[in-house]
Amino acid sequence: MEFLCYHRDRPGSLPLRHELLEEHWSYMDRYAKTMIARGPTLADDGDTPTGSVHIVGLPDPAAARAFAFDEPNYQAGAYRDVLLRRWHNTLGRTMWDFPGGRTGGNRYLVLGLGLGQIADLAVPPNQDELVAYGPLLSDDGTTWLGTAALLRAPDPDAARAILTPDRYADIEVHNWQFGGRPS
Fold first, then answer.
1. Residue 49, number of CB atoms within 10 A of its CB
2. What residues make up the domain containing 120?
3. pTM over the 0.85 mark
4. What integer pLDDT is reported at residue 127 of this predicted model?
């Protein structure tokens, strides 16, 4: 099963995140073989972290909750809240397989919070700009709750346009970059 976990930073938690960086990476290293995508969301300055996205394959919802809530930054209070949803890897690849590479262009996390009527299940036509794409689902995988995408786009409005606007209660667009240990 695949899960999307989005930890949103608590205001003023940047010093704590810096202090726990090695612990965070060590924790994530334990999941390296099942990681589909990862990386920080950033403020408009393109430098200040606002959250942390991880899409990971795990055995079940209980393992996903353990992944999300045992994370060192969460345990230390660096995060304001956590969005944890079952997810389906519609592209069938990881971010490391993204044809656009790790750098270049603007990258975004787009979260469409569904209104109830299923939307955007089919992969959009411009797959070469998609890093990850798929529906957000209930724990048992039977109820559509929205759609999440990581993508390269010219600007936030172009990123938002990947989803059908009138089918979502809200569409969030966050600056995002590839994450993980520096090589």
1. 19
2. 106-175
3. yes
4. 85
